[in-house]
Amino acid sequence: MLRPDAPARLDVLVSDSAAPCGVEAFARRLAATAGDRAATRPLGSRLPAERGVLVLNLPVVAWKKRLVEPITAAASARAAGRPVLIVLHEWADLDWKRRASYAPLLPLASAILFSSPEVAAQFAASPQSRLAPRRRGIVPIPPNVILPERLTETALSRLIASERHRGRLVLGHFGSIYPRKQSSQILDLVAALVQRGANPFAVFLGSFVKGQDDVEGDFRARAKALGVEDRIHVSGYIADDADLFAAFAEVDVFAYLFAEGLTSRRGSVLACAMSGRPVVVNAPETAGAFDHHPTYRRLLEEGRLRLVPTHAGLDQVAEAVEAAAVAPRLPGCLDVDGAWRDALAAVDAVMAA
């Protein structure tokens, strides 16, 4: 058992992706937060003979090409007497084949952390749960971007600003675009705003996920069918946080409509709240969804997150967006370092249990 006053060293497995997703960004920033007692180790590399905790975040980037490497790393760590921590960021949203690929990995874990109570419940209800250890916990997912001290105009920020100057209500939506996130619901929201007499323009700050489905084709076909294709812009992946916040600064209000309502694993929502602009999002399905997450609780108390009912109709959401768009801009203040210390504390606590 690890003593709480002597947290273990961490070897955090990462990919070599030049365009990291939220899970990958979490892994890298977690290691940075732990400082000298942590290191990142590329998947497939030889692990050192140290006795620290091997930390593996799932889902892995490019998982079909990485089926064996996580299992090999975990098996090698356990054979050497090292504990293995799995941080599971998603479950029910994953393709069933992806979930099945984790079956050999789960028995090798010493403990599991989940990105939200909802993901923990999804996993507990699945057959694979019987393969996993009972030592489990919830990690409060922090924002994975850094607010720069100064903002500099970019081509994207100027484009968005020009739409605002035309009198348009600029609706922002940050993060990867994929079906389970229901990003296409924002297209329906744009159409609803038009019907209410508003003049919206939606900017999607992110890129389409690549997979078996034609996510981009379906998205653009939906926009055309709704007659809003001239009211949207998709930026693609934005690598630099300064460029991202320059775009955020030109947004009037952000909006999300998740199938399950807002859950604490949504780091993209936290990032938007850092901009000082309000975020309209549908409420969690369950009470106590943010009990473990100090940052989310603070944002709700300060009114930075404006909740609509979980299954609110588009007209109700549109009304909330219109009200939020004219609200005074709040300071873009968020204790990001404190949020990451909370995440690291959750890691240390579950390994000390």
Walk me through the structure.
- With 353 residues, the protein is of the alpha/beta class.
- The protein is 35% helix and 16% strand.
- It is built from 12 helices and 12 strands.
- The strands form 2 sheets. The chain has a 6-stranded parallel beta sheet with strand order 2-1-3-4-5-6. A 6-stranded parallel beta sheet has the order 9-8-7-10-11-12, sandwiched between helices.
- The longest helix is centred in the last third of the chain and has 17 residues, at 336-352.
- The model has no long low-confidence stretch (mean pLDDT 90).
Radius of gyration: 21 Å
Query: What is the percent of helical residues?
Result: 25-40%
Q: How do the helices and strands follow one another from N- to C-terminus? A: EHEEHEHEHEHEHEHEHEHEHEHH
Q: List the domain count as a whole number.
A: 2
How many strands, which pairing sense, and closed or not: the largest β-sheet? 6 strands, parallel
Tally of DSSP helical segments: 12
The shape, in one word, is: globular
- The CATH topology of the largest domain is Rossmann fold
Which spans of ≥5 residues are poorly predicted at pLDDT below 50? none
Please name the CATH architecture of the largest domain.
Answer: 3-Layer(aba) Sandwich
Number of strands: 12
* Structural class designation: alpha/beta
